[in-house]
Structures are given as structure tokens and as C-alpha cells.
Amino acid sequence: MNAAQSLYKTPELAAHLAAYLADLPAAHPTDPLADRLGEHVVAALIDEATLAPKPGLVDIRSRGAHRDLDWTLMCASALALQPTFVNLARAGIETQPLLALRERIGAIGRDGETCMLDTTRGVNTHRGAIWALGLLVTAAARDMTDCTPRAIAARAGSIARLPDRYAPSHTGNKGERACRDYDVGGARGQAQAGFPHIVDVALPELDRARERGDNETAARLNALLAVMASLDDTCVLARGGRSALAEVQQGARHVLAQGGAAQLDGRRHLKALDRRLVELHVSPGGAADLLAAALFLDRLRNEVPYTAKA
Known about the structure:
- The protein contains 14 helices and no strands.
- The radius of gyration is 18 Å and the shape is globular.
- The two termini are 31 Å apart.
- It has a domain of 201 residues.
- The protein is an all-alpha fold and 310 residues long.
- Helix 10 runs antiparallel to helix 11.
- Keywords: ATP-binding, Glycosyltransferase, Nucleotide-binding, Transferase.
- GO terms for molecular function: glycosyltransferase activity; triphosphoribosyl-dephospho-CoA synthase activity.
- It catalyses: 3'-dephospho-CoA + ATP = 2'-(5''-triphospho-alpha-D-ribosyl)-3'-dephospho-CoA + adenine.
């Protein structure tokens, strides 16, 4: 069992998770830096999945607005994707021409999506996270001498803006349709802009909450709420349209205005928002993906600068 698998090892949860993990292929050693970065990504995904109470989202206590997802499936998916993220990091280390890198990681990401769907029996657990965290782990591996969040996000944006000749022109995914129907940028636009909701919204809110003494759970919830308050979340748009998105954004802003997740009034309004999103059957999955990506970059702020082998 690797470090990510043991993060939340209580007897009950470990036994439940083991049922999903029994048939997963083990990740094979590759490059020490790539292995380390892959572990960071998986840990960030599990941290996001476990964080509670998240409004409308799967967490360790609830399915949120989902009928086909739960915490153990999210964790199993994250762990199954570890070899994908290791391979993406390896590509960042090994492939210097940016266009060739873009096409290589596109192929790896599509293979990773197939692995995810095989693991989950067709349920989309992490399609958006493969895109966002795949770009970020590639960009991080490319130059670990500068692993500040803004620098990594900028490198990821440079990669995202390049074309991939081998990518399908249309996927038919709900997020793609929502971008077209509501004229929003979605996950692709967020990446091509250098992930502004991570570097300018989530991480600053995380830092502010920590500085004022909020516990880590509250700080992470506040970071999620800050993203929800302004993101044109295609997961919400796809399920509930603009009216649902307005409720998500207004509800998140209201929780933060009441002191956020560390304050009693904020927690009351957070629980009310959760009940409302479950009632609407909407889940801010785009915001959750960006929170996981922010937690990944937050982990890298504590990394010692590293130069990969030539």
C-alpha cells in the first residue's frame, strides 16, 4: 500500500476501499521525481474527495447530489490514475519540444480516462481532474527549479494553448456541450488562461484562512467556496442551467460573508447550501477539480527545488 492509500486508513474505511483496490495494477518505479509528483497528485485528489461538508459534492460523509458516486469510488479512481500522472510527469521531464509534449500528454490523458472508466465501470469520476492536474503535473515536472504555483500554472497554460492533432474534435461530454450552449470557457478556457481560479482565487483564500487561524478543513472549504462563488462551472450548467449556477455562486458568497466554514453562522449556511444543491441535483464538480489542483500546487510550495537528471 502506497502513501496515498494509507492517508485515511481507519479499519472500516480501509476495508471498504480494499474491495475497490484489489484488482488495480500496481504502479511501477520510473523516475524518482515523476513518482513523487504522481503521489502528490493522488494525495491531493484524495484530500479533495475526503474534505467535508462540501455542498453538493461527494465527500467522506455523503454522496452529495450524486447517485452513482461515493467516497470509496473516488479514492479508487484516484489511485488507479496514479500511473497516468506519473507518466505525465515523465513526459514533462523527457520531452522538450512543446508541441510534441502536448501531443504526448494528450495521448497519456486519453489512456488515463480509459483506465478511470474501466475502474469505475463507466462512471466519470475524474475526467476534469485528468485534464487540469495532468497539465499541472506535466508543467511542474518540466522545471522543478521554479515550483511556485503561478509559474507552474503559467507553464501549464502555455501547453494547453497548443493544438493536439490527435485529439477528437468533439467528445460529446456534458462539459463540452455546456461550453457551447452557455458560451463559457470551461476547463479548457481555465487552463489556457493559466488557471486564474487557482492562483488568484483558491490559493489566496486558502492562505488568508490559515493566516487568521482557521483549521485546515475550514481553510480548504473556504478555498472551494471562493472558487464556487465566481466560476462558470460547466458541471452545474450541464445539470441545472444558469439559474442553478446563480444559486451556487450566490450561496457560496453568502457562506463566506457569514465568516466561512470556521464560523458557526458560516457552517449553518454551508449546510443549508448543501441541502439546496442536493435538492437541485447539481454538483460543482469543476470547482472541486480546481480545489484538488490548488491542493496539489500547495503541496509543491513545500518541495525543495529539484533538477531532473539530464
